[in-house]
Specification:
With 80 residues, the chain is of the alpha+beta class. It has two helices and four strands, in the order H-E-E-E-H-E. Bound molecules: zinc ion (ZN). Keywords: Signal.
Amino acid sequence: MNRARKFCTVIFSLVFIVAFNPPLPVSAADGTTVVYVTKTGEKYHSEGCKYLKKSKIEKSLEDAVAEGYEPCSKCSPPEL
Ligand SMILES: [Zn+2]
């Protein structure tokens, strides 16, 4: 009984930790957030988006926004 309760506490703690620590956006070593744009598109994307199959140009999030790119609606990249 006591053991089962302990087990439940551990599981609950793990779920709590996962729920409140979503994976952080991919960041370069200098701390800037990296996103990707395409040659012809007007959106910026996060790594692995299907729209990056044709072309994939790495940019910092700040640069992408400054250059007028908007976040992709499919891959929900980080926003400033
Ligand atoms: Zn995308």
